[in-house]
């Protein structure tokens, strides 16, 4: 249910016409009509819209938390990346800025490499004075030819919009963003990787997850931001 539809149902349940609600809230009737049509531009922008939503909810005797959460999800700006949006809400830690390497440090590293090269050359020269000893290690060679481990099963995550609007970011094991944006009710998106899928959900109660065919349901509450990892490389820290 959209924000406008929710506001209209709140008004009707309270027994108000648009004109009566306008008189009680001192919000112009035309603005109330636009809000109920999900038009938030004529009221002056998001800040004024939030204030009007709070006032209407109070007059109608309904809590404003859920409709405000729906408003944030419905009007979230697509001009920002998911990471920027999460940083705005302190959902993710800000990346630390890397300090540039100084020339002094580079010169120290270069001197160390040169010293190591001189030492290695001296050792190699001394070793040539004696007869080389050739050893055979067939078992070691055989082990080197064997795979270290069997290939691990990959991961497939299906995200389905089930309750209004959410926004998600999906990264794979290589750190590549497979998707970053909105997911609407009824929309289905599938993501896969051979090792790891890292998923950030901005409105956890609005989507359901299916991982490798297993239905996990909704990962959290409406308005809750969750971070999840799936796959052989996934850590145990979730949320």
What would you say this structure looks like, in words?
The longest helix is centred in the middle third of the chain and has 25 residues, at about 105-125. The strands form two sheets. The chain has a four-stranded antiparallel beta sheet, with no helix packed on it. A four-stranded antiparallel beta sheet has the order 3-2-5-8, covered by helices on one side. The model is unreliable at about 75-80, about 90-95 and about 130-150 (pLDDT under 50). It is of the alpha+beta class and about 240 residues long. It is elongated. About 40% of the residues lie in helices and about 20% in strands. Helix 4 (about 45-60) runs antiparallel to helix 5 (about 65-75). Among the domains are: about 5-75, lambda repressor-like DNA-binding domains (434 Repressor (Amino-terminal Domain)), CATH 1.10.260.40; about 155-230. It has helices at about 5-15, 20-25, 30-35, 45-60, 65-75, 80-90, 105-125, 140-145; strands at about 155-160, 165-170, 175-185, 190-195, 195-200, 205-210, 215, 225-230. The chain is built from eight helices and eight strands.
Strand content: 15-25%
The number of E-state strands comes to: 8
- pLDDT average, as an integer? 75
> Helicity, in percent?
25-40%
- Shape call: elongated
Gap between N and C termini: 26 Å
Name the poorly predicted regions.
77-82, 88-97, 129-152
